[in-house]
Automatic annotation (TrEMBL):
Pfam families from the UniProt entry: HTH_1 (PF00126), LysR_substrate (PF03466)
Function: NodD regulates the expression of the nodABCFE genes which encode other nodulation proteins. NodD is also a negative regulator of its own expression. Binds flavonoids as inducers.
Family note: Belongs to the LysR transcriptional regulatory family.
Protein name in UniProt: LysR family transcriptional regulator
Boundaries of every HTH lysR-type domain copy: 5-62
Coiled-coil positions: none
Superkingdom of origin organism: Bacteria
Organism the protein comes from: Bradyrhizobium iriomotense
Alphabetically ordered keywords of this record: DNA-binding, Transcription, Transcription regulation
InterPro entries tied to this protein: HTH-type_LysR_regulators, LysR_HTH_N, LysR_subst-bd, WH-like_DNA-bd_sf, WH_DNA-bd_sf
Amino acid sequence: MSDPIDENRLRYLFESARYGSVRTAADALGVNPSVVSRQIAQLEQDLDATLLERHSRGVRPTEAGQLLVEHYRRHAADRDDTLTKLREIQGLQRGHIDLVLGEGFVADLMGGSLGEFWRRHPRLTISLELAGTSEVIRAIADDRCHIGLVYHPPQDPRIRSCAAIRQPICLIARPDHPLARLRRPVKLREVAEYALGIMHAGYGTRQLLAMAETSEKIGLLPKLTTTSISILRHFVRSDLGVTLLPAFSVAADLEDGSLVAIPVENALLASAEAHVITRLGRELPNAASQLLRFLIGRMKAFAAANLTP
């Protein structure tokens, strides 16, 4: 008797539920959308159950569909872990690691840490995915990535923070800016008087700034809102305004003296942290576990951080 839960059809269902769109899932899988629709329809027929609901903005799984999505996610994670453990019989000679991170960590990661790791383990491969705070957490919780680097994440019961260190949000400005010439910590109200560039609402820095605005009963009116730290760097370097970011995200600019980081007098902004996260309960493959420890020990964003037990 054939198994009614066909593995390939289950994958089409999983990707459609993940992206909320049959067409987007088809693009990711490299097939025609009609193929995805037919395979899901056949799976529904085999199981005599409706698995996807169509709505104006795409699709979402039914209760039965969600049960199969979770089954596939567990199966895929178990399969990947088994394959990785087989590779580990040969030590760290082979293997692949999926890493998801906020843009602010990129320069720190690529500036030396990753190169040193590859020199030690040249046959390991790594994929890097850039994402906002919420998407980093989702990628880890859904087992799409092994390790996440994220700034000031909200608490999530699915997530384990392996390391965290305080990295306050600072005023980032040119050395000749009036606020920089004060040579003292600045108040948020003072920052509000100047042209300001900030990150989009989906990012940890912006979410924390919103809380700080509420605590001080002020409203920042940004001249520029973006999803790119690189754009904010150019905004400030071009003397178009100032921004609010953790210092490690513009470390190269601070080192060459083109920008300065000035403390902001706000308890919320001063308490922000950079985190390395994994999914709670997931046993990382050996290669990912080694990279996790390596990044915590080498990256400036986690200097002096300690592994949690």
